[in-house]
Amino acid sequence: MLFERHLDLLPPLRTSAWRKMAIGTWRTAKDPTVYGAMDLECDAALAYVRRISERTGLKVTLTHFLGRAVAEAFRQKPAINGILRFGAVYPRRAVTLFFQVATDAAGEDLSGVRVFAAETKSVETIAREMSEKVGGVRTGKDKSYARMKRLMELLPGWISGLVMDFAGFVQFGLNIWTPLFGTPKDPLGSVMITNVGSLGLDFALAPLVPYSRVPMVLALGAARPRVVAASGVPVVRTVASLGVTFDHRIIDGVHAAGLAKVVERAFADPEGSFGPP
Question: Over the stretch 143-180, which tens digit does the pLDDT of each residue have?
């Protein structure tokens, strides 16, 4: 078919008075941005991914583990796994993770890979899928993103914003997908994740992308030894900072606190959350 449904959505949620006020107050994702940060003790998670790497030969990292933890948080808190359309929040049927990746050695050109239904997959499966897809993006075998990038390269700068606004309205507002846009279905997923630690940064806050309608962006910093308090005693632990940016029209402090608890629990007890590696 030339035109078909873009996203697989459930019926809209009941909109509370506060949510209606939030939706009416902020017209676009350029305005209702909220920032947060949390520190994650990573020793247990690092040991978990190291065991997977040793057993499989895959390069499994904290980024993959964070993705699985966030997918679990979105599964447990389905209200945050949604998209805003015509004044109502439509929940997604599944969690799609979008990982930002550099497509060149210098890191000047960015693209990304998606992992669909991530809440049903293991850390190993997420790492394996990402490895295959990142290879496709960097070698040009991933035609969907290659077409999209070629289109944007051809457009003059002054019109690119108008084209993205129109495409976003059709794809996300009207929920219509067509290959004529040159983009894959659901191109940026439920939540965007970037690892700024790979660039040597300890902490960063990434911006929301208005076109994507993604309500949350996560930036994982470098994992480094720090002195922390354990039962009132100073000890050295490996800690990574996580920068969180979210759309206040969909996500509020209660949602963010619930997500933080799920992610913290996963980092503290990986096997208890996801089973043996």
Answer: 666 676 677 667 777 777 788 888 889 999 999 988 87
The partner residues of 101 in beta bridges, in order of sequence, read 111
Q: Which residue stretches of the chain are H helix?
A: 17-25, 43-56, 62-76, 123-139, 143-154, 157-168, 253-268, 270-274
Q: 241 - beta bridge partners?
A: 39
CA 196 distance to own-chain centroid: 13
**DSSP notation for 82-134:** EEEETTEEEEBSS--EEEEEESSTTS-SEEEEEETTGGGS-HHHHHHHHHHHH
- Cβ(214)–Cβ(191) below 8 Å: yes
Burial of 138 (0-12, 13-18, 19+ CB in 10 A): middle
Tokens of 120: 């049903």
Q: Are 245 and 33 in contact (CB under 8 A)?
A: yes
Two structure tokens written together for 224: 């480094």
* Vertex 14: Cα angle to 11 and 16 (nearest 5): 150
Question: pLDDT tens for residues 26-74?
Answer: 666 667 889 999 999 999 999 999 999 999 999 999 999 999 999 999 9
Task: Tell me the CA distances in angstroms from 144 to 47, 48, 136, 150, 216, one per residue in order.
Answer: 35, 33, 10, 10, 23
Q: What is the dihedral of CA 150, 137, 112, 266, to 10 degrees?
A: 170
* 190 closest CA partner among 101, 86, 264, 80: 80
